[in-house]
Amino acid sequence: MNMSKPTSYELLKDIYSTVNGLRVEMNDRIDRVEKRVDILEDFRGKILGVASMIAIGASAVFSWIWERITKA
């Protein structure tokens, strides 16, 4: 059995193949994470919008009540 030493071309081809596989795997992982982050950011935006509306309403009610109390 004569095991020949791989050529530089074959080694480079193997390296490119391995790196390409890792790149594809990382892109898939990043895509999945980006989708999850987008969902969380949308949820956070909705919560902040609702909280802002509640704060504006509470402020208006409190101002109206304070005006009634201090007029007397």
Can you give keywords for this protein?
mainly alpha; rod-shaped
Structure write-up:
The chain is an all-alpha fold. 89% of the residues lie in helices and 0% in strands. It is built from one helix and no strands. It has one helix at residues 8-71.
User: Helix share of residues?
Assistant: over 70%
Integer average pLDDT: 94
As residue ranges, the low-confidence spans are none
- Span between termini: 107 Å
Q: What is the H/E order?
A: H
Number of strands: 0
The tally of helices reads 1
For the largest beta-sheet, the strand count, sense and barrel status come to: none
**Beta-strand content bin:** under 5%
What structural class results from the helix and strand content? mainly alpha
Give the C-alpha Rg: 31 Å
- What overall geometry do the principal axes of the alpha carbons give? rod-shaped
Topology:
Blueprint: H1 8-71
Summed up:
By secondary structure, this protein is mostly helical. Helix content is 89%, strand content 0%.
